[in-house]
Amino acid sequence: MKNIIYIIIGFLMISITSCLEIDNWEEPDVRAFGKIIDSYTGENLLTSQGDWGLRIWERTWTESVPNHQTLTVKQDGSYNNSKLFAGSYDILPYGGPFWPADTIKNVILNGNTEQDITVTPYLQLTGFEASLNGLKLTMSCQLKAPIRDGLPNLVEIKPFLSLNPFCGASNFIDIGEYNNQRKQINKSWMEEVGDVETSNFYRIGPLPVKPGYTYYVRLGANVNDANRSYNYTEIIKIEVPADAQNDPNEVPDNFLDNAQWPFSRSEWDGNRWGNLSGSWVTNAAMRSRGDGQYGGYDGGWEGPENDKQSLGFERWGDGENPIENGKLYQTIDLPAGIYRFTLSLAGENPIISNNGSDPRYIAAAIGESLPDVEDISSALASTNFADLGTDGSTNIEFSLNEPTTVSVGFVVNFTGTEQNVRPSWLKLEKLD
User: For 387-406, how does the pLDDT look when each residue is reduced to its tens digit (9 = 90+)?
Assistant: First the structure.
């Protein structure tokens, strides 16, 4: 029995000794580096850290297709990797905001190898400007599409703000006040611009910033390809003075907040229905979903993975409670003047709707609420928009002789079925 035990121990010692043998493979020490060149400018193609990269395949040992490695492209459009094995590689720029590129074959990496790669961007953002007025930041740029034949549809122009020099889709301040200011396009270049290379300027903002903070800001635009990566402007550093403040007499472009698609929400049911964030007030009658918890936000019927982010209210089926004198509004202290309140169903909202014929009003009234439907004539101004098509807008105007607290928004009676409203944007502006 002892002999058997000794034999087993002997085998174990041999196995352990074999496992402890030193790996005689040398560590990877080849460095590959270079620039991703914009074919139009000859300069580096600016990106955001980690947005996309280079796929490389080592071809030294086999003719079959090996698994690829990914080399990250840095924000300045360069790449650098010092942990590769010497050998022959294929290289492909992949996942970026450019027309499909050809694979570069049989690149020999040995020691320090510099390999620049040229790509052709979908879009160029030129004439970028960022201006600060008090605590409001405005950005603008012009879009160019040198190649328009076959260009995927434009998706959006989006502002990116960061508190450090890394700024873009992989690092930005993700809040509704900024996301709601992006310019949704969702059209072909021909529909949006026409058969010309350069568009008009796009203006984004004003965006709120904080006193004493330093921001790094840029704009990005993308197209509807498989990746939706952004072409970017350069980054501008914005230093907000510690004593900066807004002019209390400045008239905003829109007195309403959270008033354009995509609308941001606060509480919601995790699937579709919820409440709007910001200054929106929803009365009990309008909270017709979730046993009286939710009203005013409609995320779409396809579930949370396809959240459509719309202002919306609805009574659709016989089993649902009617909405009687449902109200959704904002209350604002306004200076004396002439005002226009506009509702638009034309725009980027993918679930725009104005279904049914039951009474639905936009209205403005003095005080901190809106009148009921039967008393709508007591409002400063109102209009029933039940017959408004999904490509149209409507508005009301009213005058104030002195500074006044005013509420503006919706009043509806949805007692029938298949009634709903999902607009694209609303605006309250001062005309004089």
Answer: 999 988 999 999 999 999 99
Domain ranges of the chain: 30-119, 124-239, 265-430
CATH 2.60.120 fits 265-430, yes or no: yes
Instruction: Choose among 430, 250, 242: nearest CA to 342.
Output: 430
Task: Give the whole-angstrom CA distance, residue 280 versus residue 202.
Answer: 28
Do 30-119 and 124-239 come out as alike in CATH topology? Answer: yes
Q: In terms of DSSP bridges, do strands 112-114 and 30-38 run parallel, antiparallel, or are they unpaired?
A: parallel
Across the range 173-179, mean pLDDT stands at: 83
407 CB-near residues (< 8 Å, 6+ apart): 281, 329, 330, 331, 332, 364, 365, 366, 367, 368, 369, 370
Q: Looking at residue 68, what DSSP letter applies? A: P
Question: Rounded CA gap, 279 and 161, in Å?
Answer: 23
Instruction: In whole angstroms, give the CA distance from residue 23 to residue 26.
Output: 8
Residue 177 host element (H or E): helix 176-179
Kindly report, residue by residue over 196-219, the tens digit of the pLDDT: 999 878 888 888 999 999 999 999
Q: How much is the pTM?
A: 0.62
Cα–Cα distances in angstroms (integers) from residue 382 to residues 28, 256, 394, in the given order: 73, 17, 10
Write the class of the CATH domain 124-239: mainly beta
120: tokens are: 């052709």
- Token pair for 178: 């900024």
Q: What is the mean pLDDT of residues 59-82?
A: 82
